[in-house]
Amino acid sequence: MNPHIKPVILHAHASGPNPVKIAIALEALKVPYIVKQWDFSDNPETGVKGSKYLQINENGRVPAIEDPNTGVTAWESGACMNYIRRVYDLGNVIGPPGSSGQDLVDFEKWEYFLLSTLGPMTGQVNWFRHFHPQQNDDALNRYVAQTYRCYDVLEGQLKKSEGMSILPSQVTAVDFHFEPWVKQHSFAGLSLDKYPLIRKWLGLMEAREDVQEAYAKIQNSLKK
Prior knowledge:
Blueprint: E1 8-12, H1 18-28, E2 33-37, H2 51-54, E3 64-67, E4 72-75, H3 77-88, H4 101-131, H5 137-158, H6 173-182, H7 196-206, H8 209-220
Parallel strand pairs: 1-2
Antiparallel strand pairs: 1-3, 3-4
């Protein structure tokens, strides 16, 4: 990586899964970055619903990134990830493992499966288990069932690589998308007992240096 490159600013909060995936990609590509922590309030200086952050992301969510090297600001984790790949993954380290039309579609369909289905379903489980002001077992049970259905799909896909990676050939940004969400299974009250390949894959991901460094950097930014 060019030693003169300026650090990308990653806007995050410590408890959410989506900023982590962007940090993992930046670590994997050895792109320097700075983590800026925000809270869930509408405080004008510190909150994601405050006036300062809403100038960066009018949707009031993290992650967002600001790249001083290009002047680009991006938000939504899928948009952030794909921006980083286009600009910084010149050697195709974390992109589709092949260049055929099928390779590209396979990459995108698993990326979108996480963004549109497994991630949101897990988020709803977390909401109704931990944060909804009134107990709603019907809603909780629906989202638990849907998340397990997603686990069924993922377990089937991992058979193609014997649990090594979601796309059969190599670890890619797709794995980075999934790792922080699947890691939340315990918090969500979900079990991996019926998913040995997911458990194996998650252990392999957690052992990666880029994954460990991403979590550490986001947590350490709280101390500043």
